[in-house]
Design goal:
Helix content is about 40%, strand content about 15%. It is an alpha+beta fold. Helix 2 (about 50-60) packs across helix 3 (about 80-95), helix 14 (about 355-365) crosses helix 15 (about 365-375) and helix 17 (about 445-465) packs antiparallel against helix 18.
């Protein structure tokens, strides 16, 4: 894969200079939490800074940076929290930080204004929905050649292939938030039903294996075993890399070494599953109003979600108010889409891109700073326990933890019986890389055709994915409309670029 060149050589160079130390550790503050990331925790957090940083800090220079992110708005205790943050990072890397935390409902409009009008900022949160478009606008700095000197901690913590996921034309413009950055799907079952019917859920992982069980549950419980909203059983497309096209119907199967760009609805594996979904709808296994629902319901006999096994205990079960059992139903897959779910970019207009990366390196790798961003202000939002865990004083913290940095250096809470992040990290490290990892479809020459084709699919999607429509009838209709809108040009251009990427 093309993406290995920079980081393999960069890591070697940094290690040769004796600069690279492990992520984690809380510095010399005396209140460090448990490191949940690297297995080698001997280095202090200050070891994750570059020699350039040390020089600038020792000279007394402090630079001002602004970071724009998403959450529940500005924290009520922002002034005292940012003061504690700045006291720490000012000493370590010579940075004074200002945060703008935009509320969820205002995010899209506010972010678009900031980017499109060149409003001053240094770091901004984003994801794959706008990453490439903003790069094409010239909004973000090319940080490829700055990583070695300024992000040694994250280079060590995060496997090289995750950097490949943010490459655009072999250059890097974003820093991934290393968390559940691969995708693993799990079937989640109501444990009471599993026990009552003695279900072997490990044998019930494909749609065709589930039909008989669902028929029984429907008859006995007078309820819908598959209760979905209008996006239906969308997870069936997760085995297809969307290659940056932004639509479920265009992709390359993750394990296809020939890298064939396809119309996914016509692929045998997808068509077979769509036929089963339609059969379930006809039999009343799926709720009849699914195609029009914008919200699901809390209780489900069975559903599929992305996550990790222990989420059944920590999240899925508590959310449903029931004990659940879960089983993995597919490979853990790493793709551009999975990595780009949470990114932080440096503005092309920032005067201090090196400092931006040093800050992000600290947020990812310094446990004390990571906890300050993840939990809030020590003594106000959280406190450390005698055994080095975190006790949350309240749930008032407004920043969204998934947007900031790695989960694997966050101190676990005193309510946690085990460290679920270890499980997530293991999944990441074992993930199967998509054949298209590192490739992004440049849609410039077919942008109008692709936009029209996306709209066509959106008109049909709900009724196809919830089983209302017979796929053997409706898919040919969809294809006919797509071809009139220029679909073949889109496929041909995507295949040409994929072939070039694969060296064909």
């Amino acid at each position: 894969m093309k993406g290995k060149r920079l980081l393999a050589s960069g890591l070697a160079a940094v290690m040769a200079m004796g600069m690279l130390t492990g992520c984690g550790g809380g510095g010399d503050t005396g209140s460090a939490g448990t490191n949940t990331g690297s297995t080698d925790n001997t280095a202090s957090s200050s070891g994750s800074q570059s020699s350039d940083s040390a020089q600038s800090t020792s000279s007394g220079e402090i630079v001002n940076l602004k970071w724009v992110t998403i959450g529940n708005g500005m924290p009520t205790n922002y002034d005292t929290w940012i003061s504690s943050v700045n006291a720490y990072i000012g000493e370590k890397i010579g940075v004074n930080l200002e945060m703008e935390v935009i509320p969820w409902g205002d995010w899209d409009n506010r972010r678009n204004i900031i980017v499109s009008t060149n409003e001053p900022y240094d770091i901004i949160f984003g994801n794959g929905n706008n990453y490439v478009a903003d790069i094409n606008l010239g909004a973000y700095a090319d940080i490829t050649d700055l990583l070695e000197a300024n992000m040694p901690g994250l280079l060590e913590l995060m496997p090289d292939k995750y950097w490949d996921g943010v490459r655009v034309k072999d250059r890097i413009y974003g820093v991934p938030t290393y968390k559940d950055s691969s995708i693993t799907n799990y079937a989640i079952w109501d444990k009471e039903l599993v026990d009552e019917y003695s279900l072997d859920i490990k044998s019930l992982i494909t749609l065709d294996s589930l039909t008989e069980t669902f028929e029984t549950l429907k008859a006995d419980k007078n309820d819908y075993p598959v209760y979905v909203k209008n996006d239906g059983l969308y997870y069936i497309f997760d085995v297809y890399d969307q290659i940056g096209g932004g639509t479920q119907i265009l992709g390359v199967r993750y394990d296809d070494k020939d890298a064939r760009v396809c119309f996914t609805l016509e692929e045998q594996d997808i068509m077979d599953q769509l036929k089963i979904i339609h059969e379930w709808y006809q039999k009343g296994i799926i709720n009849p109003d699914a195609a029009t629902l914008t919200e699901g319901r809390i209780y489900n006999m069975w559903r599929v979600a992305q996550g990790w096994e222990s989420a059944g205990v920590t999240s899925w079960g508590p959310q449903m108010g029931k004990d659940v059992v879960v089983t993995q139903i597919m490979d853990t897959i790493l793709s551009n889409e999975t990595v780009r779910g949470s990114l932080n970019m440096v503005s092309t207009n920032s005067k201090y891109p090196d400092k931006c990366l040093q800050l992000l390196d600290m947020v990812n790798c310094d446990t004390k700073l990571r906890d300050l961003f993840y939990y809030g202000e020590e003594g106000v939002n959280f406190e450390y326990t005698a055994d080095g865990k975190v006790h949350k004083i309240n749930n008032d913290w407004a920043l969204a933890g998934y947007t900031q940095g790695s989960f694997f250096t966050v101190t676990i809470q005193d309510t946690d019986e085990f460290n679920q992040w270890d499980e997530v990290k293991a999944l990441n490290e074992a993930a199967v890389s998509s054949a298209m990892l590192g490739f992004t479809f440049d849609t410039t020459s077919v942008s109008d055709q692709l936009a029209n084709c996306r709209e066509i699919w959106l008109r049909y999607r709900s009724e196809v994915m919830t089983g209302v429509q017979d796929p053997e009838v409706v898919v040919p209709q969809i294809k006919e409309e797509l071809l009139k809108a220029g679909w073949q040009n889109v496929i041909d251009e995507a295949q040409r670029q994929v072939d070039e990427f694969m060296g064909k």
